[in-house]
Amino acid sequence: MCGLLSLWYSSAFGAFPDVPLAPALELDYFKLATIPLLLYTRALGRGVEHATISFVPTPRGLSVVSINLGLTAALIVPIGLVTQFLAPHWAAFSPWEVFDYAVNAFIFVALPAEALFRGALLPLLLDALRAPAPLAVGFTAVWFGATQVGPGASESAVWHFALLAIAGVFYARTFLATRNVTTAAV
């Protein structure tokens, strides 16, 4: 677990040096290298044997993702609009830009975060430490939200934390229903 945390924090908070791999894609060597290192470190850990990483879509996985995505949006969007954390804005993007952004966000943001929070930490709390599910889900959701807020956080950052903590609960629901890190990352 310590190896996972150190790798994730080093990547998330820019502790690794900038070594451009593909400058046009804003692809950095250490961000790319962190993903297999996270997965390898996770695979070596004890107490997380029940979590999988599968990229093969299943009807159940798609159903669970759809339901939890809908529930997450139903809570987060109204709260974000009322608090003015979310502001409607229209910008035209090409299909390639949308695809590129979605793939990069999945590979470099969602998958590493879910490998840590739902793939390693949540099963560790549930399986190895025998924590009650609501406590384990709440802890990982709050920790997930807290990683996005730095010192001297503004009111906007506080709402960012709250909305991410809410989303973290639904990511955990998705993971627990499938025990697949990939579905939580989607």
Please outline what is shown here.
This protein is 69% helix and 3% strand. It has 186 residues and is an all-alpha fold.
Highlighted features:
two-stranded antiparallel ribbon, single chain, globular, 7 helices, 2 strands, mainly alpha, 186 residues, 69% helix
Report on this model:
It is a single chain. This protein has 186 residues and is mainly alpha-helical. The chain is 69% helix and 3% strand. The chain has 7 helices and 2 strands; from the N terminus they run αββαααααα. It has helices at residues 2-12, 29-44, 59-82, 95-128, 133-146, 155-178, 181-185; strands at 20-22, 27-28. A two-stranded antiparallel sheet has the order 1-2. Strand 1 (20-22) and strand 2 (27-28) form a beta hairpin. Helix 1 (2-12) packs antiparallel against helix 2 and helix 3 (59-82) runs antiparallel to helix 6 (155-178). The longest helix is centred in the middle third of the chain and has 34 residues, at 95-128. The two termini are 23 Å apart.
Write the layout of secondary structure elements.
Elements: H1 2-12, E1 20-22, E2 27-28, H2 29-44, H3 59-82, H4 95-128, H5 133-146, H6 155-178, H7 181-185
Antiparallel strand pairs: 1-2
Helix pairs in contact: 1-2, 2-4, 3-6, 4-5, 4-6, 5-6
Low-confidence stretches: none
Helices, by number, come to 7
Q: What structural category do the secondary elements indicate?
A: mainly alpha
Q: For this entry, what is the oligomeric state of its chains?
A: single chain
Biggest sheet descriptor: 2 strands, antiparallel
Radius of gyration: 17 Å
Number of strands: 2
Topology as a string of helices (H) and strands (E): HEEHHHHHH
**Largest sheet, order of strands side by side?**
1-2
Shape: globular
Distance between the termini: 23 Å
Mean pLDDT across all amino acids = 78
User: Strand share of the residues?
Assistant: under 5%
Which bin fits the share of residues in helices?
55-70%
